[in-house]
Amino acid sequence: MTTPPTSPRRPPKTADDYVEGVLAGDRAALGRAITLVESRAERHHALAQEVLTRLLPHAGKAHRIGISGVPGVGKSTFIETFGTNLTKAGHKVAVLAVDPTSSRSGGSILGDKTRMAKLAADENAFIRPSPTQGHLGGVNRVTRETMLVCEAAGFDVVLVETVGTGQSETEVADMTDFFLVLMLPGAGDELQGVKKGILELADLVAVNKCDVDERKARGAKRDYENALHIMTPASPNWRPPVITISGISNIGLDVLWDKIVEHRAVLTESGELPAKRRGQLRHWMWALVRDRLVHALEVHPNVADRLPAIEAAVADGSLPPTRGAEELLAAFGLTDRN
Ligand code: GDP
């Protein structure tokens, strides 16, 4: 049998092309679909929305796992080993990143493939670096939509990595099922510096690099257990465990995966997981509405004209912020009456 001559691959033009390519698990199509949803161009907006709407029924089955920790804690090393364990066990793993610092001003670029070379070459893994800032609706919107596209393409584990800055951690926790916090060993003093907020988000704390000094890692584990003990857990059915791991030496990562699976079973059984996801969808919708409204306001010609003067007057104290807000809203056409 002769094979027909292959025609040069043409880029997808229609929603059908995108949707079929993604559902078939075609990596090139997946990449293009993500590029489409990342696009800031107004002309891509309607097509992107149609593609997403059609992919949505095929999404939602993945384990959505947020991963946080300060730079240097070992996130990329951990994801490389953990992701490889999972693909070996038959999973398909997508790695996304939310890094509000990865703008043109520089800063770290999370999800950079060179940081996870082995996983990047794994055919059952897909790594997407953090989108740059300045998107309509922000990095947050893009990452959520990218997650859905990956799920529709058959990825059953999505790891969303973020740096240890408050806002991005909250955003990632609000788009995932399970929030993993990586910590460094180092007792007492170090714990003082840990923001309480991050522990409140954690579904599990993993003390990383336990290969270096096991005793120290165990000490840190106890400290975090004590710190968590005096906090009210977010879920009545899940007390966040603390474990010691080593990303580099592949220690404890099996225990970690078991905990993730257990967490899903417990929260599914109690109805919390579906409720959490429903809440996340509602929040997401309102975040989009807020983003669009603020954008519409900022680009409104009346507002754009007056904005610099009003901002300057508020900043130098000559105009109270309440009056400034009123003037901007009035320039946009909003008054007390509407
Ligand atoms: P990230 O900034 O959080 O992504 O951290 P990296 O994964 O880039 O790791 C930072 C440094 O810690 C690198 O030099 C890694 O080789 C090292 N490292 C990461 N994980 C481990 C670990 O489990 N044990 C040890 N000993 N070193 C590690």
Give an overview in words.
This protein is an alpha/beta fold. It contains 14 helices and 7 strands. It has a 7-stranded parallel sheet, sandwiched between helices. Helix 1 (15-23) crosses helix 3. It is globular and about 60 Å long. The chain starts with 14 loop residues before the first helix and ends in a 6-residue tail after the last helix. The relative contact order is 0.10. The structure holds guanosine-5'-diphosphate.
Helix content: 40-55%
Strand content: 5-15%
Order of helices and strands: HHHEHEHEHEHEHHEHEHHHH
* Major sheet description: 7 strands, parallel
Rounded to the nearest angstrom, the distance between the terminal CA atoms is 71 Å
Class from helix and strand fractions: alpha/beta
Number of helices: 14
Q: Round the mean pLDDT to the nearest integer and report it.
A: 86
Bound molecules: guanosine-5'-diphosphate
Number of strands: 7
Oligomeric status: single chain
Please state how the strands of the largest beta sheet are arranged side by side: 3-2-4-1-5-6-7
Provide the low-confidence segments as ranges: 1-7, 103-107
Overall 3D geometry? globular
Gyration radius from CA atoms, angstroms? 23 Å
Keywords:
338 residues; alpha/beta; seven-stranded parallel β-sheet; disordered N terminus
Give the helices and strands, then pairings.
Layout: H1 15-23, H2 27-38, H3 42-55, E1 63-69, H4 75-88, E2 93-98, H5 117-120, E3 125-127, H6 138-152, E4 157-163, H7 166-173, E5 178-183, H8 189-193, H9 196-201, E6 204-207, H10 214-229, E7 242-244, H11 253-269, H12 272-299, H13 301-315, H14 321-332
Parallel strand pairs: 1-4, 1-5, 2-3, 2-4, 5-6, 6-7
Bound molecules: guanosine-5'-diphosphate.
